[in-house]
Amino acid sequence: MDDKDKQIIRALQKNGRLTNQDLAEAVNLSPSPCLRRVRNLEAEGVIQGYSADVDAAAYGLAITVFVRVKLERHNQADVQNFEKRIRMIDEVLECHVMTGAMDYQLRVLVPDLKAYEDFIRNRIHPIGGIASIDTSFVYGTVKRTAVFPLAR
């Protein structure tokens, strides 16, 4: 991947609805080579898809929660079970394996506190094998972007 590919990616991260013509102009390429590069990035799995950036609160999911989970045991069966079950829970938008005191960090969206209680009691607790859960509620966002930084 060269610098021109990275320019294309950043332009599409800023506005995934750019026409090929507009994208080509933004990255200083002619349309045909620009489209070829985009298709190659898609075929190689670098560009994995396109989506709409939606305001969660306007959608009805006003509460963002970071949930850190520590497992009781780290054997293959328990880890696979936890990860499989988490993948099936719609409220979990992201699940990251972490270093440090906790094993996983989840980003969860729910409409209200009652829904969060339901999420913990009826979706997380039944997974089993969880030693502890630590929750942080987001009450404001300072920065949020999907655009990768430039390499320095």
TrEMBL record:
Residues 1-62 form the HTH asnC-type domain. Gene3D superfamilies: 3.30.70.920, Winged helix-like DNA-binding domain superfamily/Winged helix DNA-binding domain. Keywords: DNA-binding, Transcription, Transcription regulation. CDD domains: HTH_ARSR. The keyword Transcription applies. SMART domains: HTH_ASNC (SM00344). It comes from the Bacteria. InterPro entries: ArsR-like_HTH, AsnC-type_HTH_dom, Dimeric_a/b-barrel, Tscrpt_reg_AsnC-like, Tscrpt_reg_AsnC/Lrp_C, Tscrpt_reg_HTH_AsnC-type_CS, WH-like_DNA-bd_sf, WH_DNA-bd_sf. This is Lrp/AsnC family transcriptional regulator. It comes from Albidovulum litorale.
